[in-house]
Description:
Chain A has no helices and eleven strands. Chain A is mostly beta strands. In chain A, the strands form two sheets. In chain A, strands 2, 4, 5, 9, 10 and 11 form a six-stranded mixed β-sheet that branches. In chain A, strands 1-3-8-7-6 form a five-stranded antiparallel β-sheet, with no helix packed on it. Chain B has strands at about 5, 10-15, 20-25, 30-35, 45-50, 55, 70, 75-80, 90-95, 105, 110-114. Chain B is built from no helices and eleven strands. In chain B, a hairpin with a 2-residue loop joins strand 7 (about 70) and strand 8 (about 75-80). Classes of the chains: A mainly beta, B mainly beta. The interface between A and B is medium-sized, with 22 and 22 residues.
Amino acid sequence: EDQVTQSPEALRLQEGESSSLNCSYTVSGLRGLFWYRQDPGKGPEFLFTLYSAGEEKEKERLKATLTKKESFLHITAPKPEDSATYLCAVLGGSQGNLIFGKGTKLSVKP
Amino acid sequence: SAVISQKPSRDICQRGTSLTIQCQVDSQVTMMFWYRQQPGQSLTLIATANQGSEATYESGFVIDKFPISRPNLTFSTLTVSNMSPEDSSIYLCSVEGSGTDTQYFGPGTRLTVL
Lengths: 110, 114
């Protein structure tokens, strides 16, 4: 069964405390892995697309990496404005649709 | 990336009634997608809407409950019919970026059914 699992469900960090979010997946025929940020009351905002193992993408304090089984979203020296829910999604599988994980809710305290 | 708007942004409805959600895109797109995000759950695809053809529904979703229109390449509607409290969710539309597999999302419609 095609599946996306994100961990942890929630993460509390102090400002400046670096950490990583995990997205593990089982899907046949991966066509891409996507990271989104979702603020309360808003739609998901696109961050990154990764297509193949070993690929990395960076944007400000965020860096996404991909292996054959999982992806990590590394947050370096986070700030309170990085607080949001981060969603991982994979494209592929038997239906060829975008399959989302439940997300990791990140809180960064000043 | 596309700019997507949705109306209404939120609504509170009575059981048994229907609500139509509108999704407008600032550019022409082939496929539009409708998702549901229930509290504490991941986004779940309801259906894919192509202009000029019937929408394709995912397992667990039926046209009688969630009729979709796609009259042109920039607009779509999703109706939630005969609502019950279990339909309380955020409903999101999305489109694929031109030449990419990346989907871009609208701001969502928060629906509460009493």
